[in-house]
Structure formats: structure tokens, C-alpha cells
Design brief:
alpha+beta; single chain; 119 residues; elongated; four-stranded antiparallel sheet
Amino acid sequence: MPPQLRALTAPNRGAAPTEPPPPPPLDARHFLFPLVEALSGRRPPRQLSETFTPTALTTVTKAVSRTRTRLGRYRLCHVSPEAAELAGTLHLPTKVRAFAARVERRGSRWHCTEFHLLP
């Protein structure tokens, strides 16, 4: 039996507009890997200004140690659809330090609004 052709239908122009696609989910590595590079002196902290608020960036700038820093384990907790909290450890050559951060959605992007490095 030969293949049958069928007519293509035009999209319905009278339909209600669809909702915009949801923003991308939070990828914690998007914040943490550049953060570790800035803390260890391999990246200028000002490069974080696109994703870190001035308050959080000031804390990062004060914590730059110029020593080898590695990211340890971290946890991500979505507090609401618009906010999440990160907590984890940073391994320095002589000690391990804990950090906590708050990330909020602003428009279609995520921004780190709070960053705390514990002693």
C-alpha cells in the first residue's frame, strides 16, 4: 500500500498565548566553582559581580586567601521557588572552613545575595 499524504494544519491563531518557559533550575556549581577560584586567587573577585550582589561580593573579597582552596561537600536546599540556600565546606591547606550562602532568583537569573564564611 503506498504512503498516504495528509494535509498539515495551521496553528490556531485564536488560542491564548502560552506562558513563558520556566527559568532554568539552580545549578550550585555555577556559583561555587568561580567562588573557589576567587577565594584561592586564581580569579579576580570582580568577575563574580554578575552573579553576586555587592554585599556578598564584599565578603568574598575580604576572604581571598591566595592559598590553594578546594570545594568540599555542599548541600542545596530550595526554600521557595524563588530562593535557595547553600552550605558546605572549603578545604584550605591548613584547615577546613564552612560557608553558607543564599541564592535568589531575580528575573530569569539566580544571584547570590548573602555569603558567609565561618572561621
